[in-house]
Amino acid sequence: MMSLKRVSAPKISPDGQWVIYSQQSVSYDTESNQSDLWLASADGSQSPRKITQTKAGEDNYFWHPSENQLFFTAKREGDESAQLYTLDLSSGGDAQRLSDFSLGIGSPQISADGNKILFSAKVFPGMFTDSLNRKQADEKKKLKYKARVYTTFPIRLWDSWLDEKQSHVFVLDFKTQQVQNVFRGISLVQSKGFQLGSFTWAPDQQSVVFTATIDQNTTAYQNSISKIYQVSIQGGKEKLLVDDTGDYSSIDFSKDGKYAVALGAPLNQTKIYQLNRLYRFSWPDMSNKTELVSSLDRPINQMEVSNQYILASIEDQGVDRLIRISLQDGTYQAVLGGQQGSYSQVSLSNLENVFAYQFNSMASPPEVLVHHSDKEVAISKANMAWLKNYDVKDPEVFWTMSRGKKIRSFLLKPASFDPAKKYPLFVLMHGGPAISFKDAYGYRWNPHVLAGTEYVIVMTDYTGSVGYGEKFAQDIQFDPFKGPGQEILDAANDAIKRFSFIDGSRQAAGGASYGGHLANWMQASTSHFKCLIAHAGLVNSEAQWGTSDYIWGRELMNGGAPWVPTKTWKEQNPMRFAANFKTPILLTVGENDFRVPINNTLENWSILQRQKVPSKLIVFPEENHWVLKAENSRFHYQEIRNWLATYLK
């Protein structure tokens, strides 16, 4: 798994002739990781070639709108933060640095004439220039005390303590080399709850359209709402473009500038999950708001907008498919995708029917392809030869009736599978819950590594998973563990009946994040399994409410605050059933995890030791919600497999 090349999203040139992508080689020695940009002809006539060879990797790469020139950000030798670089493919030579901005260049976007760049950077409140931020940073370094002081919520996110900095949008003019803070005159930044969302060039190329919230500080007791605004690149007051109840996450424009296209949803303070809707507005007056593909009922993961249509990747029952959505009438048609594998990361050229994308499956990591003149051209092929050395199987799909509904699962056979043998079953439970098990490659909890040659894996999309309609995802509300847990058990029992090679007397279950929550619920509610594995899992939902970086959704899930004695708080908190804990369990956690903080795992450990349950605790001091470092990952996988071998032998 670690030896496979990691191929990132493609960017196709506007003329449809070339495609670039990033390719990374991962090493167990982090210092030896190598990431470079690769260039290939879009029709496959010329094989990919590496065009950067520095130690620092490249990110945020994109094409000049009319010239054979590409741009990217990198933190190279001598750079104090990520800077913008350009590489002229016509003249050759080394990449040239275009910026010297101490705050760094984030999410750059080029103007239609190729003369300016929009980008984001974090600034201290009221410090709108690079020099003022340098001065403020220097002043902070002189302080003799170390303390974090807060008056608003939230205070942490994932693995970082939040500070007072805000993300602002800047414009870099290539001709003058001047950098201007576009937000220097807007009133939004005065709000304690200001947070920038997405941003893009308006069709006039003289203004920026962006999404932002001003009530992020209220998310302890409600969902925040993000609206759409416009501001001149010369600065000045912002203009609110859409004044309705929509909560908008992104904004884009058709190539001809006639339409604005936004993803969002009507704000709802009572639902645990809401599907993003696709809206079209007439530009520039933002009139004639129209919902496109209103019947789709599937999440849109990523999209690009042309003149007449939107090419979008959607999640549908365990796979990502590509569809083409008409800008005129909102109808859609299938483009790529079927029962196996996932299609994503689309990149449109200016040519009709020529676009790049990624394809991957559970058995093969992402590769770059180009849809070229109705042919699918494989571009990167970074792992094809390597994968031939391994027995890596595709999953099988089966459906189970549970609690009156159809529940979808994947079954994965081990390598060197022998149908005459009997194999133990490892039930793998996904996180979220608003995600799903997809036929897509993963480096964390990779089912092939977990299966090895010893175990059959079953992966169930329980109620709360996405890709099965908005209602299916919402129905987990007020029933976070009991109902999903029953569906997982029913699917496991169904698999045992269907597949004679599964030994039903030897079963284990495990997962991470929400999958870890479910593992702890299995500990509280059943003795079905020989052993359990919980990574970053809560054992006490009341403590999780108070210490996680995200709390309002947990209140919605349980029907009220923890001090409100709702049925869910009382009946579906694993810790309340600690007297039932008997199953041997492996606990793992990252010390820097603020989504499911370490206190929950430590509380679980105390319960297990108090109840004399066979158990093992592994704490990763350098990791957050995920185990990412190569050596830590290898150790983690080995410990999981050792635990399974101990109890399923």
Helical segment count: 11
Strand order of the largest sheet: 32-33-35-34-36-37-38-39
Secondary-structure-based class equals: alpha+beta
Roughly how much helix do the residues carry, as a percent range? 10-25%
Rg to the nearest angstrom? 25 Å
Distance between the termini: 25 Å
- Our estimate of the beta-strand percent is 35-45%
Q: Sheet bearing the most strands, described? A: 8 strands, mixed
Net shape: globular
Low-confidence stretches: none
- Calculate the mean pLDDT score and round it: 96
The count of DSSP E runs of length 2 or more, i.e. the number of strands, is: 39
Describe the structure.
The chain is an alpha+beta fold. Helix content is 16%, strand content 36%. It contains eleven helices and 39 strands. The strands form nine sheets. An eight-stranded mixed beta sheet has the order 32-33-35-34-36-37-38-39, with helices on both faces. Strands 1, 2, 3, 4 and 5 form a five-stranded antiparallel beta sheet that branches. Strands 6-7-8-9 form a four-stranded antiparallel beta sheet, with no helix packed on it. Strand 10 (106-110) and strand 11 form a beta hairpin. The two termini are 25 Å apart.
The gist of it:
The protein is of the alpha+beta class. The radius of gyration is 25 Å and the shape is globular. The two termini are 25 Å apart.
Task: Name the descriptors.
11 helices, 39 strands, alpha+beta, five-stranded antiparallel sheet, single chain, 649 residues
Topology, element by element:
Blueprint (H helix, E strand, L loop, with lengths): L5 E2 L3 E2 L5 E8 L8 E8 L7 E2 L8 E5 L5 E6 L8 E6 L7 E2 L8 E5 L5 E8 L6 H13 L13 E2 L2 E2 L4 E8 L5 E3 L13 E7 L5 E7 L12 E7 L6 E2 L5 E8 L5 E8 L10 E6 L4 E6 L7 E6 L3 E8 L2 E8 L5 E5 L5 E7 L5 E8 L2 E9 L2 E4 L5 H4 L8 E7 L2 E8 L10 E7 L17 H5 L4 E6 L8 H5 L7 H17 L3 E11 L1 H12 L5 E5 L5 H7 L4 H7 L8 H5 L13 E6 L7 H13 L4 E6 L9 H19 L1
Parallel strand pairs: 34-35, 34-36, 36-37, 37-38, 38-39
Antiparallel strand pairs: 1-3, 2-3, 3-4, 4-5, 6-7, 7-8, 8-9, 10-11, 11-14, 12-13, 14-15, 16-17, 17-18, 18-19, 20-21, 21-22, 22-23, 24-25, 25-26, 26-27, 28-29, 29-30, 30-31, 32-33, 33-35
